[in-house]
Fold this sequence. Notes:
The protein is about 30% helix and about 20% strand. By secondary structure, it is α/β, with parallel strands linked by helices. Strands 1-2-3-4-5-6-7-8 form an 8-stranded parallel beta barrel.
Amino acid sequence: MKNYVSASVLSADMLDFRNEIRKLEKSDIDMLHFDVMDGIFVNNITFGLPVLQQVRKATDMTLDVHLMIADPLKYVKKFADFGADMISFHIESQSDTMETIKAIRECGIRTALAIKPATPAEDVFEYLPYLDMVLVMTVEPGFGGQSFMPETVDKIRKIREKANSLGLETDIEVDGGINDKTASIVLNAGANVLVSGSYLFASDDMKTAAAVLKEGELC
Ligand code: DX5
Ligand code: ZN
């Protein structure tokens, strides 16, 4: 499967957002990862619909929206209308999982189900035929810049094996603490979409940093 890098703009300079987006475009970054937090599902509050709308106007990049909100079903259509190309929502949220999957699919965009570190891999199995992607959180959702949790690796492997056994080419995205050291661990376990915030934005050469992530080099 092809590997992709999705840049988490939580680590971007918000006062220079347009130039940060240009930098991503020039660095062969595949997707822009947009972390929406509501202060209820997670403690932190980030950005939402009006910012996404502006970002949509500023770029043709694939917008990978990660909803860390209590009631995603209420908002998925709005996020799709405002420019999301793919939406991940959490199985641990209060919305009905199947109904939310259907609502995203009806918008004609890519559909992903996210799980927190404590949620077992098996919980997503029944939904795999209806999903384009599973997002395995490799840190507790809420903040950028945390350390990768190695105990999540086995879940990636289990989900990849299950998808293979069903004949599905489901993308598996990982999010949190992904850098030049941890990329090869998650790629070897079966992940193929790597979210990275602090590592990418702290690098002097983002294009090389993204290539390193995709190839899991230097590890
Ligand atoms: C955490 C977010 C991540 C985060 C990743 O809740 O979902 O997308 O920004 O940042 P790094 O790469 O710094 O761990
Ligand atoms: Zn995220």
